[in-house]
Every structure is written in structure tokens, then in C-alpha cells.
């Protein structure tokens, strides 16, 4: 599930859970296979993307190596930048806290948490990894999370008595701790924010048709196409998804329309679909992030893309494997990587546990 359909990993790569270096090596070989390097501009930074007509864009690029600016005109724009800007919750008093504050993006080791009282906020994979490690060295950990609202599933972990699993949210921070919505108060020395990332597009002009509000990219048809200016597409927004097969599916969706094989609905029709999809793709009423897919919505989204654009859908085995792994990790997060998956056909897969289950 970490490869594109037209190029496979080397035969000697058999791991089900790949290390970053193996994924990077795959991308390098993919680039060589399809002679893509000549199209890539290294050491260039996009400064501004602005529409100059309904179907044309002007892009200002900074050549960092030669310290000069260039202007490019193009007909279509793919935005594939991912997410890297930390999302910091807006909670009263956060700036008044006199201890240390760290975001998971900057987390490298547990040294700073040794024998400290820690408040950890977050319900994603980063929070899971951090709480398991910090629990081993900290004096006390107050962990604020709500997995059911975020993922549609509850994660079970075996943590020490030093870690308090708290579902109540922070009402306000003080210089030395926080008051919670349930009326309790806790003191701590470090705030660890595993609160995810925000979608930011600093290079887009105000008339680009794209805006972000409350961690949701607005007015994207099928979470891809800029409904205000359909010659722009953003790839890879849905979180907790089958990454590379999804990216490929989204790109093929765009090309069906941009090639003229399919015609876009009117802007009004696209906006109506957007509002409908936001409701359908919510995991439950408490989840406001429509770009956060979970067990209840991922298959709906993948199949809808294929049906709408009349393209080949994702193999059902990918979705089955992903859903199995989400459920498996919720039962045994510490050891969920100790399994080897083998795809048998488009619908079935096998599993082998590589270590003795605890």
C-alpha cells in the first residue's frame, strides 16, 4: 500500500511496515524508471500562485541557488505539499505557562521528560508513540485524548500507573498547570502537543479560491478540485487514509476532467456536493474534520471517487488490509508492526505473526 500501481518495490523488500529509507529509495528508483528528474526543479521555492484568467495561472518561483526570481505561466496546478505547520490549540492561558512547550514535530527523545510532570495532548499516532515512551521516564503523565471521536475506535494501551488517561479537555492554562472542564486542576512542568498539523498554503493569492478554516480546506470538490477555479487541485488532504493508492486515485480523478473525458459540474452543483460530502464523511457528530477519514468513511470516499470519474477503483484488498490493521493496532498498539501481510489476490490477504503475541 506504499507503492504506485505501475512500479513495485524490489523483490528483496518484503517488510509489511517499511522504514523511511526504503520508501525514499523507492521514490528515487521511481524517478529513474520514468525519467522524472529532468522535470524537477531542486532548490526552488514557490512564492506566489495567482490566477490570471479562468484557466491560467501565474507562478512566481525563487531560485534559491542563483538568488533570482522567475515567473511561470501554466494551465493547471497540482498542489502536493503535504502538511508540516504544527497546529497549536487556542486555549486560554497557553502563553502564560512558565514551563516548556513542545510540539511532536520537534520531539526526538525522551530525555527532556525524565522525572518530569507532563501534560500530553493528542489522539493520533504521534501521541500514541509519545505516551508509550514518556510513560517510561516521566514522574507523571496526564494524557488528554479522545480516540473514539478522532478515529471511530478506541485504542488499548498497557501504561503504568504514572499515566492518567484523561478525556476532559483543558478549560484554561495557568503559569504552573491547567484547569479542566470537569473542574479538576493539575500541575505539570512540560506541555507536549501531539495535536497534528494545520493546512497552510502561504503562496496562494487571496483570489485563488482556496481558504482554510478550523483545519478544513474550504470549497474542495471531492476533497480535490478547487470549486472556484477547477484548474487547480490539491492532492493528499484526507488524513488516516491509504496514502499512495489514494494519491494515485485522486490524480486519475483530476485527469479524467482535465483531459476532457469528463465535464465538471457547475460551481453551484459542486458546492452542494461539498456540503453533502462533509456530512457523509464525518465519523460521528463530534468530528468536525471532514478531511479525517476513518473506518466509517474511507471506503465510501474511495469508491465515490472511482464512480464519479468513471475510473478503476482501489483494489478491495487494500481497504480490507487497512481496516484490519486499524482494528489490530487498537487492540495491540505496541506490537501491531510484528505482522507480515501478503496479498493473495484483489480481494484476499494472509497474515503471519512474526513474534509471539503477548
UniProtKB/TrEMBL annotation:
One Pfam family this sequence matches: FMO-like
GO-annotated molecular function: flavin adenine dinucleotide binding; N,N-dimethylaniline monooxygenase activity; NADP binding
Record flagged with keyword NADP: yes
Cofactors named for this entry: FAD
Keyword terms: FAD, Flavoprotein, Monooxygenase, NADP, Oxidoreductase
EC number: 1.-.-.-
Protein family per UniProt: Belongs to the FMO family.
Protein known as: Flavin-containing monooxygenase
Organism listed in the record: Polypedilum vanderplanki (Sleeping chironomid midge)
